[in-house]
TrEMBL record:
<comment type="similarity">
    <text>Belongs to the glycosyl hydrolase.</text>
</comment>
<dbReference type="InterPro" id="IPR031705">
    <property type="entry name" value="Glyco_hydro_36_C"/>
</dbReference>
<dbReference type="InterPro" id="IPR017853">
    <property type="entry name" value="GH"/>
</dbReference>
<dbReference type="InterPro" id="IPR050985">
    <property type="entry name" value="Alpha-glycosidase_related"/>
</dbReference>
<dbReference type="Pfam" id="PF16875">
    <property type="entry name" value="Glyco_hydro_36N"/>
</dbReference>
<keyword id="KW-0378">Hydrolase</keyword>
<protein>
    <recommendedName>
        <fullName>Alpha-galactosidase</fullName>
        <ecNumber>3.2.1.22</ecNumber>
    </recommendedName>
</protein>
<dbReference type="InterPro" id="IPR000111">
    <property type="entry name" value="Glyco_hydro_27/36_CS"/>
</dbReference>
<dbReference type="Pfam" id="PF16874">
    <property type="entry name" value="Glyco_hydro_36C"/>
</dbReference>
<dbReference type="InterPro" id="IPR031704">
    <property type="entry name" value="Glyco_hydro_36_N"/>
</dbReference>
<dbReference type="InterPro" id="IPR013780">
    <property type="entry name" value="Glyco_hydro_b"/>
</dbReference>
<keyword id="KW-0326">Glycosidase</keyword>
<feature type="domain" description="Glycosyl hydrolase family 36 N-terminal">
    <location>
        <begin position="30"/>
        <end position="266"/>
    </location>
</feature>
<dbReference type="InterPro" id="IPR002252">
    <property type="entry name" value="Glyco_hydro_36"/>
</dbReference>
<feature type="domain" description="Glycosyl hydrolase family 36 C-terminal">
    <location>
        <begin position="625"/>
        <end position="705"/>
    </location>
</feature>
<dbReference type="InterPro" id="IPR013785">
    <property type="entry name" value="Aldolase_TIM"/>
</dbReference>
<dbReference type="InterPro" id="IPR038417">
    <property type="entry name" value="Alpga-gal_N_sf"/>
</dbReference>
């Protein structure tokens, strides 16, 4: 299904996915421009677009917005995707197409277009990949310094690709923004004229935005309309700019790094950017989301076929009051609920009794764990659970043995303050010795104690991001740390997984500060937010679901907020269920109800974690809303009506994604129950829901359907 076809006479390359085509063209003046990104075209149809006149700007200026990688150079005044400086201060690129290469891969097809500067020793390779049974187009770029000597090329901007949208009567963007404890807040607004930029200068993906944008003509809904999405697979600083030009075209350029950061490309070196991904859908925002979810499960996640376990995390119950007997006591209570993975959070290591000391000293606190972690780990396993721990490898407290021994390992500049946040400093993971140190103790920790889960946290952004040793070594390229820190985090995770096949990793960064397709390629789930209030979580999880699948969304039931236990569980059951409440304070009735709800989640979790997701009804938290999952012949619907309104709630809820001719019936643990209805009726008329929700605040329910036997 996936293919790349080249028409050499008209110099057109057509990349086709399951339902779409992405076509590009080398013009007579040597530019690579986009011809089409949308519905699937035959190669001949795509090649025919090369003869059409290009839209030009007023005064007949070139329209650089159409280019695959607009450079800083020539008659271009838009957002540059690539900016470099050559010897002599030359900041103008002139690229010419040298060759192309098409390669069949095990699950798709790859196209490489090689360009070279007409004078200076720089080669730019534009990479493309289309996959089988998937509508995502992958792009990335490689810069190669092909010269000799010792003169570097300075790279100011190296985006992974530029994406052009078709001419539409209107443009609307969808994106998420927020802050710590308020991540993934969805916004759908008219795209302003000019340039709209999202990004992170934090050294990680960030809480304030996430590296994706959806665009439509302003009329798309959850279940109909054309939607274009661009997403960047990178976990460090990044920038994504959508520019809306006067002449009526829109393009999106995205890549790693942020303004003011430069990298030096030495002779013989190359710099490869992270993937930037594009997807087109004709089925509205819901279909766009499902396309991204499917892509993540099929081509990103290391072990997407697994079913994630129900976990218990001790943080919200005991905070830093961590010691062996207390952890054993709460582990026994968790096991009684049906929990399958027990995770001990912060406070188990070094002299870590609060946030002011111990980070960097990764050995069990001898006063709290006199015999190390073995007794706790063995007892947790005897209780039938896996054993996991919280770690924060990229951070250090100044009050630690590590910092006293290696003060040069943190990000810092000479003659400047080392400003602490949460009494922490950031370790420079771009240093090979820091990466080797981190891998060494993590490898030993996991191997010695049979740990099967790491909650990998990162609780503060970069500051004073210097690397003085690079200056002393004569390199001077300190800004490479913005790239190499993230890449070495990836490398440590990859090495750990290779050494310990049973290890699973959760990405956490002060909540949802490191969520992207880059980190998902080496982790199994992500911590969505430190905000565990069930009502707040609904909007957070709604925004998260626009691009990322439920099977990676860690969601806990805690004691936060005012919602009753069942409502809290139902919200958390929309992803990977975890429990973080203080079980010592739960009543016998709470324990019994929780035990039943954990069992019900286990019945539906394969459907939730692997199924197609449909967002139904009102926006979460406003009226009656629902999330529906369809996996094989199983259907699970989570209903929410947090607050009654003056007008009655809808009595019927139209479902989606069903087999129209199949006959469905509600299914409970005791077997089939209730009336039967065809999928056609359930999707066009609806499922009766009014009587399923208790009157008053915080009404919620779980409904399971199966084809009638």
């Amino acid at each position: 299904m996936a293919s790349v076809v080249v028409d050499r006479e008209r110099r057109v390359w057509s990349l086709s996915t399951q339902h779409t085509t992405y076509a590009l063209h080398a013009t007579e003046d040597g530019k690579l421009v986009q011809l089409h990104w949308g519905v699937r075209l035959a190669p001949a149809e795509a090649a025919g677009l090369a003869g059409r006149p290009h839209i030009t700007a007023p005064y007949d200026l070139p329209l650089d917005i159409e280019e695959q990688l607009p450079v800083d150079g020539g008659l271009r005044w838009g957002v540059p995707s690539l900016q470099v400086t050559f010897i002599g201060g030359v900041r103008s690129l002139e690229l010419a197409l040298v060759s192309d290469h098409i390669e069949q891969e095990p699950h798709g097809t790859r196209l490489d277009l090689v360009l070279a500067d007409t004078h200076f020793p720089l080669t730019v390779v534009l990479h493309y990949r289309v996959r089988e049974d998937c509508d995502v187009v992958e792009r990335w770029t490689t810069l190669r310094h092909t010269g000799g000597g010792d003169t570097p090329v300075t790279v100011h901007r190296a985006d992974s690709g530029n994406w052009l949208l078709p001419e539409l009567p209107h443009y609307r963007y969808s994106a998420v923004w927020g802050a710590w404890s308020a991540e993934h807040q969805l916004r759908r607004e008219p795209l302003p004229r000019g340039e709209l930029t999202f990004g992170s200068r934090h050294g990680l993906t960030g809480h304030q935005a996430n590296p994706w944008i959806m665009l439509d003509d302003g009329t798309a809904t959850e279940d109909r309309g054309e939607v274009w999405t661009v997403a960047l697979a990178w976990s460090g600083s990044w920038r994504l700019t959508a520019q809306r030009r006067f002449e009526g075209r829109v393009a999106v350029s995205a890549g790693f790094g942020h303004e003011g950061v430069t990298w030096r490309l030495q002779p013989g070196e190359e710099l490869t950017t992270p993937p930037v991904l594009g997807a087109y859908s004709e089925g509205g925002f819901g279909a766009a989301s499902r396309a991204w979810h499917g892509y993540a499960r099929q081509y990103v996640l290391p072990l997407a076929q697994e079913v994630r376990p129900v976990l218990y995390n001790s943080w919200e119950a005991v905070a830093f009051d961590v010691e062996e007997e207390g952890q054993l006591e709460i582990a026994r209570k968790a096991a009684d609920l049906g929990v399958e993975l027990f995770v001990m959070d912060d406070g188990w290591f070094g002299r870590r009794v609060d946030s002011s000391a111990g980070l960097g000293d990764w050995w069990p606190n001898p006063e709290r764990f006199p015999e190390g972690l073995d007794r706790l780990a063995d007892e947790v396993r005897r209780l039938g659970m896996g054993f996991g721990v919280w770690v924060e490898p990229e951070m250090v407290n100044p009050d630690s043995d590590l910092y006293r021994t290696h003060p040069d390992w943190v990000l810092h500049h000479p003659n400047r303050r080392r400003e602490e946040l949460r009494t922490q400093l950031v370790l420079n993971f771009a240093r090979e010795d820091v990466g080797e140190w981190a891998f060494g103790w993590l490898d030993k920790l996991v191997g010695d104690h049979g740990i099967t889960f790491l909650k990998w946290d990162m609780n503060r952004a970069f500051s004073q991001a210097g690397w003085p040793a690079r200056e002393k070594d004569g390199d001077g390229d300190q800004d490479r740390l913005w790239i190499d820190h993230t890449r070495n985090v990836y490398a440590v995770m990859d090495r750990l997984r290779a050494n310990h096949p049973d290890l699973r990793i959760e990405s956490c960064a002060g909540g949802g500060g490191r969520v992207d397709f880059g980190i998902l390629a080496r982790t199994d789930e992500v911590w969505t937010s430190d905000n565990t209030d069930a009502f707040h979580r609904q909007s957070i999880q709604h925004g998260f679901s626009q691009v990322y699948p439920a099977g990676v969304m860690a969601a806990w039931v805690t004691d936060a907020g005012r919602a009753p236990l069942a409502y809290r569980f139902h919200v958390a059951m929309a992803g990977v269920l975890g429990i973080g409440g203080n079980l010592h304070q739960w009543s016998p009735e709470d324990i019994a109800e929780a035990r039943e709800l954990v069992a019900r989640y286990k019945d539906i979790r394969a459907t939730v974690q692997h199924g197609e997701q449909y967002r139904l009804g009102a926006e979460p938290g406003r009226g009656l809303s629902a999330i529906q999952y369809v996996y094989r012949d199983e259907v699970a619907v989570l209903l929410f009506h947090p607050h009654p309104e003056v007008l009655p709630a809808p009595g019927l809820l139209r479902l989606a994604g069903l087999d129209a001719d199949a006959v469905y019936q509600e299914y409970t643990g005791a077997g089939a129950a209730g009336p039967k209805a065809t999928g056609r009726v359930l999707m066009s008329v609806g499922l009766p829901v009014r009587d399923r929700l208790a009157p008053g605040d915080w009404a919620s329910a779980l409904i399971r359907l199966r084809p009638a036997r």
